Structures are given as structure tokens and as C-alpha cells.
Amino acid sequence: MRHNYKQMETAKETSSLTTDAIFKAQVQRLHHLTVALRWLAIGLLWLTVGSLSL
Fold first, then answer.
1. 32-52 pLDDT per residue, tens
2. Does 6 score more than 80 pLDDT?
3. d(CA 54, CA 51)
4. SS3 of the chain
5. Would the pLDDT of 14 be above 90?
6. Model pLDDT, residue 32
7. What is the C-alpha separation between 1 and 3, in angstroms, rounded?
8. Distance, CA of 21 to CA of 27 (rounded, Å)
9. Whole-number percent of the chain with pLDDT over 90
């Protein structure tokens, strides 16, 4: 019975590490998307407001 408990604990730790890695990848993907959208907004503003101000 004791051996099975250790296997369950190891599985939980592995699952936790996998979940942390997935979360980290999702946060990094969200950050890249946010940066890309900011640059897109800046580019659109330069094309519209920038060209109108010339």
C-alpha cells in the first residue's frame, strides 16, 4: 500500500510540473500576442493619424 502512495505522489508532482510548463508557455504566447497587437496598433495609428498630420 505504501508503494502505491509514492507512485501517486510522483504522478502528482509530474502533473504539476507539466501544468506549470503549459501555463508558462501560455503566458509567453499571450505576451507575444500582446506585443504584436501593440505594434499593429502603432502602425495603424502612424498610417492614419500620421498621414493626416502631414
1. 999 999 999 999 999 999 888
2. no
3. 5
4. CHHHHHHHHHHHHHHHHHHHHHHHHHHHHHHHHHHHHHHHHHHHHHHHHHHHHC
5. no
6. 98
7. 5
8. 10
9. 52
